[in-house]
């Protein structure tokens, strides 16, 4: 059964229709500065009482068409302050969505390294139109230390 499921999944992903849908974004120099007011996170463990609203202030500097640097501070799901710094790498597109991951350092989660810094890689999709954009992320659950969520981040382009 497992081989059949994997075979069907591979066949679907390699179909001409789906293959034509995904495109690789060419890397071109850019200079865009985006700001965001934090996140909204829909936690997978709804019974744990996590704070879904994660207000804060963040910046994203897109220096190429596929990469940007990001940093910020926000009120996390454990009701503590967190800082982050990282790099978005999004080399694929699905229609208007950019697809990839953000890799970076985070702190402020009391059950993860006693609130200290740790590294994480988080899958992301972004959509942007003129001066407004949205980042979507799937934050995986990690033991009882980090809480999985579907996260949405509204952003605004300054330049």
Which secondary structure elements does this structure contain, and how are they paired or packed?
Layout: H1 2-13, H2 16-21, E1 22-24, E2 29-43, E3 53-64, E4 67-75, E5 81-94, E6 97-106, E7 118-129, E8 132-139, E9 149-157
Antiparallel strand pairs: 1-5, 2-3, 2-9, 3-4, 4-5, 5-6, 6-7, 7-8, 8-9
Q: How does CATH name the architecture?
A: Beta Barrel
Number of separate strands: 9
CATH fold-type name = Porin
Largest sheet: 8 strands, antiparallel, barrel
Helical element count? Answer: 2
Name the beta content range.
over 45%
Poorly predicted runs are 1-15
| Structural classification | mainly beta
What is the residue-averaged pLDDT? 88
The percentage helix is 10-25%
* Number of domain modules: 1
| SSE succession | HHEEEEEEEEE
Strand order of the largest sheet: 2-3-4-5-6-7-8-9
Question: Would you kindly provide a written description of the structure presented here, covering whatever features stand out?
Answer:
The chain is mainly beta and 159 residues long. The protein has one domain (21-157): Porin, CATH 2.40.160. Helices cover 11% and strands 58% of the residues. The protein is built from 2 helices and 9 strands, in the order ααβββββββββ. It has helices at residues 2-13, 16-21, and strands at 22-24, 29-43, 53-64, 67-75, 81-94, 97-106, 118-129, 132-139, 149-157. An 8-stranded antiparallel β-barrel has the order 2-3-4-5-6-7-8-9. β3 (53-64) and β4 (67-75) form a beta hairpin. The longest helix has 12 residues, at 2-13. The chain is globular, with a radius of gyration of 17 Å. Residues 1-15 have low confidence and may be disordered.
């Amino acid at each position: 059964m497992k081989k059949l499921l994997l075979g069907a999944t591979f066949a679907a992903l390699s179909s001409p229709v789906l293959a034509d849908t995904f495109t690789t974004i060419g890397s071109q120099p850019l200079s865009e500065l985006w700001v965001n007011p934090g996140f909204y996170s829909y936690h997978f463990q709804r019974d744990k009482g996590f704070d879904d609203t994660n207000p804060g202030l963040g910046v994203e500097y897109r220096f190429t068409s596929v990469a940007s640097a990001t940093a910020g501070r926000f009120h996390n799901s454990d009701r503590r302050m967190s800082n982050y710094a990282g790099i978005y790498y999004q080399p694929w597109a699905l229609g208007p969505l950019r697809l990839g991951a953000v890799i970076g350092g985070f702190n402020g989660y009391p059950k993860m390294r006693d609130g200290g810094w740790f590294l994480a890689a988080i899958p992301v999709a972004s959509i942007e139109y003129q001066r407004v954009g949205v980042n979507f992320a799937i934050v995986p659950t990690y033991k009882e230390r980090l809480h999985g969520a579907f996260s949405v981040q509204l952003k605004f382009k300054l330049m």
